[in-house]
Amino acid sequence: MTGFRPDNPLIVQGDHTLLVEVDSPRYPEARDRLSPFAELVKSPEHIHTYRITPLSIWNACAAGVSPDDIVAALADLAKYPVPEHVTKGVRDHASRYGRLRLVRLAPHSEELALIAADRPLAEEIARQRGVAPLLGERLSPLSFRVDPARRGRLKQALVKTGFPAEDLAGYAAGESLALSLRETTRRGRPFALRDYQLAAAAAFHAGGAEHGGSGVIVLPCGAGKTMVGIAAMAAFQCSTLILTTSVTAVQQWIDELLDKTGLDKEQIGAYHSGAKEVRPVTVATYQILTHRRRGGDFTHLELFDHRDWGLIVYDEVHLLPAPIFQVTAGLQARRRLGLTATLVREDGHEDDVFALIGPKRAEVPWKVLERQGWIAEAACTEIRVEMPEHLRMPYALAEPRLKFRLASENPKKTRLVREILARHPEEPALVIGMYLDQIESIARELGFPVLTGETPQRRRDELFADFRRGRLRVLAVSKVANFAVDLPDAALAVQVSGTFGSRQEEAQRLGRLLRPKPGANQAHFYTLVSRDTVEQEFARERQLFLCEQGYEYRIRDAEELAGESWA
Amino acid sequence: MKHFDRHPAEPASPAPRPVEPEATCSAGFALDDMLIVLAACMVEPPRLRSNDLALFARARETLVALLAPLPEWVEEVFTASPVQRIERAVHTLRLLSFVEVGNDEAGRPQLAATRWGREWIERPAKERVKRLLDSLKSPSRRRAEGGGLNFLPYDWPTIPSHEFDEPTAIVTAFQDLPPGIFFDLVEFLRHRSTAANPLLALARSGKRYYWLPGVVEQIERLWTRRLLGFFGDRLVLLGGVRLGKSGGGISFALTDVGQYLLDQVNDFTFAEELAAEVVVQPNFDVVFLTPSIPTEAALGRFAERLGTGVGTLFRITRRSILTAAATGLTAEQALATLRQAAPKGVPDNVAREIASWFGQCRRVTLRPAVLVRCPDVETARRVLAAGGKSVTLLTDTVVELHDPQAKPALLRKLREVGVFASE
Q: Which residue in chain A is spatially nearest to B291 when comparing CA positions?
């Protein structure tokens, strides 16, 4: 076999996917050299899969990586010769980045121009159906005037045509805001940003250069994305609008800002269904911004114009709703920071995130942080339990959707929850479910409180506080806990039902457990599934996601657990 | 009487001299092609056209995509375009009875691997080649008794074996060549057909043979064709030579395999395939870190193919397992195959799921039956009484007649008791 280098860790496949052998001594080097230009798609135990896409190449180009670097890395790491068309594809996509530049017409002018690298390209984009209407008058054979209001839409359209524009038009400075990071938190603990958080914030800031100031930071749940956001705010020293997923998440952002920065309460506002404060730092929910009045207009989108924001932070950017995309298209003169655990969107709009928020600026894989002890190790176990005899016939005759519900609400799960909690008597635990009747019934029978979307905010805060302080060991939560609920001491989760095969939900639920734990730094994630039902199939979809993130996933039958050590 | 001596002005060509090739290529590609096609026939039998039982273009393209590329000069000289390589592989596999025409579930013709083909592919690489060589060297194959793959690749013009021992003459022609040294192919053929042509010797004996041409040049051409046929369709096919490109021409060197085929040695060395290194991922992907066609074939029985060579070649799915179960494969067999191929083992969740999917399989039997729908319970009882053992009560008012052939007899009995049936 010619060109076979068995000690190398990489296989480059013809479909532009890259397989990396984790057990290879060169794995750490491979990971570090691949991550700038390839997306980590899955990272199960032995072989990690990356994918080279036009977006990943453009992300790399935006970070200053050259196509020669990419090709050299592939050739150097590969076990087998790199397919020629892959090399060619890399060079081709890379050659498209930067051939169109979006700049200001004059240094202090509001007006923008799109400049093409050559005449044929200028002619081509001028004839593209999606692009042409967004271009203004022709200023020269190579340049077009661009209406600042169309800056975002034009960038979106250019990405779709395969010629992304390098946006060098800069940003509005925004209102200035003095913001310092504390060395000791208000709660009295020493505080310093971790190395990877500092590096991520620095990559975003880019020394204040025009090619920085917009982009996405990819960090796993529990890795402190909020801290990166705060560090970016400290770097830019400007008023900031933070958009996040729920009221609870709003409160957590505010708590962290108060705890770890020199800002005081009067400088931070909450903007959601229960409060409408617009202050130098405002934290709002996506829901309130996308709320429509009866006539169909979005009532609260004007928040974006309430102040001269210097920075907009999009928390959980993979969940950014469509109307916010539209508004963001009009906010290209503002600095924009996306925070997320994954660039993968269930709706496939990754290209809009690239065009409107910006390229990926930094990413640290989950497993790396786990090895470094920044996030807890998690053991995932699926326990299969039989349907009770009296439900088997109703299940067999039910419609598909009802089948899923019957299987999810299998009453035999209650006994298992009790057993699991008894096996981990010291660990703070969440019992998570999709159906309120089910989690309320389990909580009632086993004697712990329930938190749902209908739980009043004050009661929620009390429950969270009790849970954090250890006064409450077990809390049952509905879907409301899927996003941004900061339960620092949860070390055990029992998932009694889930939203069909949602991978995002699985990641978020597991994310609740990943904050570092004292001692063994070990978390346990149990999923209870009715055997030989549709629930088993959906559970497998979710299971796949966890496996692909590198978590060991065990499957056990309820009966065989009796004599087995679970830990 | 004709004189079968060469004209003094055209002396016989001298013995070929060793040459130094600029580029070389292992000639065993045809054997590899056969393995690829056979593995494909085991995993997903390619569809055949009903009219001529040739591969559908799409099936052929799928196979072509699996072939390893050859240097252009090899493709040109041996008319070995990818499509021709597939056709030749299919032809040879058919001759060996390693594949046969079968039918898929819808009754459409397809090319499926036979038991012999499966047994052959599962053997170690050297043993696979040795089996073929030993079979070719057997007396019956040398005499070309019966169909299949014989020692000589051609059957026309037929040379009666009692008049001329052609296999021995062919072996003698190549036997003198020292192994591992490259010779120009044209020089070799020219020398053998002019200076060492056994057919010329036969012609000079004075005896007349209907199959032997009467002109020196024609006899030389005939022997050249026979040698070239054996060279291309046996030595090259089986990896008996290494090919070289020298100047504008082609050269070749005998390999161990070639020597074994030509009875020069009693055994041969053969580069064994790299041990298959396969990783079964907890997300059900199966990744090949080294290529292994036999392992591909083995895993293809219960996993969905995604690629070939190295990389993520298979994914184990519920559907692939159920398809395998339908062919009689068991969970134990599938897991044993995986464990054998994967030195790092099979992740617990994958093993569990495979066992669980196999465990869901049940066999049911289908048979035609006749249902008698009655207007009320009382009528059903009368039908039951009339039918006796040939019927069974399914519900209060539905009676099943087990054997549709017995319908006329049942209808007659029902008429006799005043129950009239309509269809």
A: A1
Helices (H), B143-197: 166-175, 185-194
Closest CA to A507 of A287, A223, A285, A220: A220
Ramachandran assignment for A549, one of left (phi > 0), alpha (psi -120 to 50 degrees), beta (any other): alpha
Residues of A in contact with B360 (CB under 8 A): 532
Encoded tokens for B279? 């990783």
What is chain A's length? 567
Is there a contact between B282 and A547 if contact means CB atoms under 8 Å apart? yes
pTM over 0.80: no
- In chain A, domain spans: 10-96, 101-167, 195-364, 371-560
Beta-carbon count within 10 A of B373 CB? 13
* B291 interaction partners in chain A (CB closer than 8 Å): 1
CB nearest B289 (choices: A21, A543, A548): A21
Interface confidence (ipTM) of the complex: 0.72
| Residue B18 CB neighbour total at 10 angstroms | 12
CA angle at B249 for the pair B246 and B253, rounded to the nearest 5°: 60
User: Cβ distance A527 to A498 under 8 Å?
Assistant: yes
Can you give the pLDDT of all 567 residues of chain A as single tens digits? 456 788 899 999 888 999 999 889 998 899 889 988 998 888 888 898 999 999 889 988 888 889 999 999 999 999 988 888 899 999 999 999 989 999 988 877 778 999 999 999 999 999 999 899 999 999 999 999 998 888 888 988 998 889 999 888 888 888 999 999 999 998 888 999 999 999 999 999 988 887 788 899 988 877 889 999 999 999 999 999 999 988 878 888 999 999 999 999 999 999 988 888 999 999 998 888 777 776 667 777 777 778 888 999 999 888 777 777 777 777 777 899 999 887 766 677 777 888 888 888 888 877 778 888 888 888 889 999 999 999 999 998 888 889 999 999 999 999 999 999 999 988 899 999 989 999 999 999 999 999 887 888 788 888 888 888 889 999 998 877 665 455 556 889 999 988 766 666 777 777 778 777 777 788 899 999 999 898 988 888 877 777 777 777 888 888 877 655 544
Q: Which two tokens stand for residue A421?
A: 């909690």
Contacts of A19 in chain B (CB under 8 A): 287, 311-312
Three-class DSSP category at B117? helix
**Residue of B349, B350, B357 for testing the chain A interface, max A β-carbons within 10 Å:** B349
Q: Which CATH superfamily is domain A371-560 in?
A: P-loop containing nucleotide triphosphate hydrolases (3.40.50.300)
CB contact under 8 A, B282 and A79: no
In chain B, domain spans = 23-261, 283-359, 370-416
Are β-strands A268-272 and A281-285 bridged in parallel, bridged antiparallel, or unpaired?
Answer: parallel
Provide, for chain B, the percentages of residues in helix, strand and coil under a 3-state DSSP scheme, each rounded to the nearest 5.
Answer: 45, 15, 40
Mutate to test the interface with B, among A11, A24, A560 (most CBs of B within 10 A): A11
C-alpha distance from A548 to closest chain B C-alpha (Å): 6
Strand partners for A337: A215, A313
The span from the CA of A390 to the CA of A156, in Å, is 55
Instruction: Tell which CATH architecture fits domain A195-364.
Output: 3-Layer(aba) Sandwich (3.40)
Q: Do B285 and A45 touch (CB under 8 A)?
A: no
Answer whether A168's CB lies under 8 Å from A211's CB: yes
Instruction: Count CB neighbours of B155 within 10 A.
Output: 9
Q: How far apart are CA B140 and CA B150, in angstroms?
A: 8
Taking any CB pair shorter than 8 Å as contact, residues of chain A touching chain B are 1, 6, 11, 13-15, 17, 19, 21, 23, 42, 44-47, 49, 79-80, 382, 532, 537, 540, 543-544, 547-548, 552-555
B277, B284, B289, B358: best mutation site toward chain A, by most A Cβ within 10 Å?
Answer: B289
